[in-house]
Please model this.
Amino acid sequence: MASIVTQPAVVRATGATDAVEAFGDGSGVTVLAGGTIVTPLIWHGTRHPERVLMLAPSALGELVDDETLTIGATVTLARLAEVAPEPLASAARLPDPEIRGQATVGGNLHVGGDLQPALLVLGARVRSAGAGGERVEPVADYLAGGASRLVLSLELERPLAGAYLAQRRRHSHTASVLSVAAARCLDGVHVAVGSLAELAPAVACPSVDRALAAGASASEAAAVVLEDAHPEDDSLASAWYRRRVLPVLVARVLQQLGEAR
Model:
């Protein structure tokens, strides 16, 4: 006997208040904004949501470029690339044009996308809603919590300089095999890496930061990255490959950062 797929309840939020109220504590809610990730999963029958919260582009689409850059969750990667500082601008430009035009900042952050390493080194703060109400926290804390809350916006200050590199397969629609971001801020240089495994969150690399602060060269500092980053096997690459390539990418990013003034 064929199984019966129940149609999900759909709520369309046109404002932040609507979105927060509809999301509640997040139980049983699938959020749909740009749809570049969720829509194919629903279409191919690999996800059967109970409730779908559709975010209109205007719902969380604020973008305020002041002393602090405030980025609403439904801002597209294409729009972000036009105003963001490095390394965030390069991370936003990484997907191909049709994805950039649809994919949103909140969705990319939620699924372990290319923005995560850049947001970590920039010390971004995430404003989110969910169980316990709204809160603002460092992006590292948001990721450590499982990224299960509704992202409302991000805030960050512009760094002195930034650099970003990613290792990708030739097919433009595949995810990154590895990604590395670095930023020179008032308190020193910060490095973070992402795409260590499918859907794995990006991680900061304090061992690299400390080596640079102690006067290490780019290659010397890059050599200690595996003290912080622990690659895994997945369908895109082996842990062995990632361990071999990651120090090389980190060294290149640090060299680029040294040239950026």
